[in-house]
Amino acid sequence: MERLxxxxxxxxxxxxxxxxxxxxDPTRQVGEIWFEPPADRALDVMVxxxxxxxxxxxxxxxxxxxxxxxxxxxxxxxCWIVLxxxxxxxxxxxxxxxxxxxxxxxxxxxxxxxxxxxxRRPKKGDFIFNPAGTIHALGPGLTVLEIQQAVDxxxxxxxxxxxxxLHLAEAADVVRAKPHSHALDTSLGSQSRVLVGGPHFGxxxxxxxxxxxxxxxxxxxxxxxxxxxxxxxxxxxALIDSGTARTLNSEGIFVLAWSTETGGS
Length: 265
Hints:
The chain has helices at about 65-70, 100-110, 170, 240-245; strands at about 1-5, 5-15, 30-35, 45-50, 60, 80-85, 90-100, 115-120, 125-130, 135-140, 140-150, 155-160, 175-180, 185, 195, 200-210, 220-225, 240, 250-260. The protein is mainly beta.
């Protein structure tokens, strides 16, 4: 087991007084907690916690082909496990109808894009897969575990007047604006299950023990959710080998995330 260093990131939309299991100064306005890769290698998959009190920017991510054309190692598919949702919780995923790219960009310029997004009321235990090209935005009231392809590549379409750069030209040939419905979206329960099996990464929801896992797993990340596993506590993350992943047991829930790309360890 190789514990990954924790990075706490303050955000204007973040939350003060997050769960004590994260051992963060309660006066900090924490938006993200993520985990640094080992010094000797990069990871294909990134896992982070998000804590929201207001709407985040409206975004879209490119797919692998477009990202590589633009000099990046990969695009970005991602998914969300909703660990907690307040009464005011919301998230936007997809649009209320099919839209051509030029209409999306025009709506981003004048702010009306907010009214074209499908805003939903998520619940604790929801799982949502967010493929590249999907317009999305997390809203307030959420504690989310996000698993994604590891690349710093986000095209911001709208940001509620915050003084940050938008990427409308870059997004114009990336966005696929349509209602969101994905076969992997589900509500999590008390059974262990593989939530994602590729093509870029895998995710398993583990209640007490892992489900049957695929034969090819690289750089497996272990995240205890509500009970310590050995000396790894909730809110922490460690790299483990695939053999260990198959034999884990816990008094609570844990999440496994891994790369399905060629290579790794």
